[in-house]
Specification:
Radius of gyration: 13 Å
Number of helices: 3
Shape: globular
Helix content: over 70%
Structural class: mainly alpha
Order of helices and strands: HHH
Largest sheet: none
Number of strands: 0
Distance between the termini: 18 Å
Strand content: under 5%
Amino acid sequence: MEDTPEDIALAVEIIRQLENLAYPEEAILQAMIYVCKDTLNKLPDQASKAHWRNKITLALADSSSPN
């Protein structure tokens, strides 16, 4: 994974950790909502927040696409 982009490497690590914890899928999804909201709130301005909120919404609307 040396040449893997940072965001993909981070996603793989998070997935591995979540699999090791063996939480139900519903709990993981709810936790990810909290993580997204927390991270969005830490962005520096409303434009960045709107951009990422839209990007997340579009990605979730097309769950067959990895990004």
